[in-house]
Amino acid sequence: MNVSFVIPFHNEEDNAAAMLDRVIQFATSHKWNFEVVPVDDRSNDNTPQILDRYAKKYPNVKPVHRRGGVDLGNTIGAALKDGTKAATGDVIIWTMGDMSDDTQTYKDIVDKISDGYDLVFGSRYMPGGSRGNLDVLKAFLSSNGTLLARVLFGVPVHDITNAFRGFKKKVFDSLQLRSTSFDISPEFALRAHLAGFRLGEVPTVYTNRDRGVPKFKLWKMVKAYLKIYWCLLKEKFTRN
């Protein structure tokens, strides 16, 4: 199994090197065949230079540089899609450049995919998982966002608003994801579920960033999630 880590970075010069180190060390220690695809999402700090420096040191670090455009802090979905398209592994892991994801969960995700699941979430809200030091309001809204999806669509997991996940590349290739922001997380989950792919989850512990500036705009994303649900409901009933 070949694993590609797709990591979006926007102005993460304080975290980029440490994040790349932790992923490389983890995958190397487990003797995986892997590559790292860090995506510079139009940063205007030293993030691009850090990624290029690692690419010179490690042949399996393959940066993608996104350039041009506006609204720099609101393109994580586009960055994840571009990185996944460039990835060559048959299994992809999305993990955030702010170091919020637990590296120990990587193995659990890959093991679950090996058991036959197509898309596996790092879940903060299933038994054994934890929101960690995530803000209470954010945790309430994100957990209830998934609860609503469970009611509306019958999604069999507990945390589709978290972008932290692993999946078979063929799942991504078979779907047409339209989101370019944080709402890519629930859209990907719901489209995969509605297409008949097997969804699973493993517990994880979330950690708020220690350095850098958060990019997530809470209420804007709540509206975006609701819009995704409404659009997919209309698509579902139109097909039926």
UniProtKB/TrEMBL annotation:
<protein>
    <recommendedName>
        <fullName>Glycosyltransferase 2-like domain-containing protein</fullName>
    </recommendedName>
</protein>
<dbReference type="InterPro" id="IPR029044">
    <property type="entry name" value="Nucleotide-diphossugar_trans"/>
</dbReference>
<dbReference type="Pfam" id="PF00535">
    <property type="entry name" value="Glycos_transf_2"/>
</dbReference>
<dbReference type="InterPro" id="IPR001173">
    <property type="entry name" value="Glyco_trans_2-like"/>
</dbReference>
<feature type="domain" description="Glycosyltransferase 2-like">
    <location>
        <begin position="4"/>
        <end position="174"/>
    </location>
</feature>
<dbReference type="InterPro" id="IPR050256">
    <property type="entry name" value="Glycosyltransferase_2"/>
</dbReference>
